[in-house]
Amino acid sequence: MLLRHGTFSYLPDFTDDEIASQVRYALLNGWPVSIEYTDDPHPRNVYWELWGLPLFDLDEPDGVLREINECRATFPNHYVRVLAYDASLGRQTTALSFLVQRPKHEPGFRLDRSESDGRNQRYTFHAYATETPAGGRYPRGDGSS
Fold this sequence. Notes:
Elements: H1 16-28, E1 33-38, E2 49-55, H2 62-74, E3 79-86, E4 93-101, E5 109-115, E6 121-127
Antiparallel strand pairs: 1-2, 1-3, 3-4, 5-6
């Protein structure tokens, strides 16, 4: 099961040229770009780890692609996403967010159902990835965790 996250979530994974096109679109709109990564892709986990600082005042996507590739090399089995922020309304809003890397094996989620008062049914997601402590959820490319 593939994690569907952000804009373009139901399209096939982007190539680097397609990622550059989307980053160029964000930069042309004056949106700063940042790169984030995580090994806990739970839908409620909206605060991923920030890779470096947000990238301001860029004209071309080359610098963003270089940072994406460094993040991919450092965390080859994590989810990596690109975000673009639009501050035109006087506050930081996410204008664009999409995945640029996913782990080779995505363990997926389980939907747990429980009954509560008044015969109400409650549902929660359980991420199989979180059964292992953070940092060891996805094996590294060299076989260690």
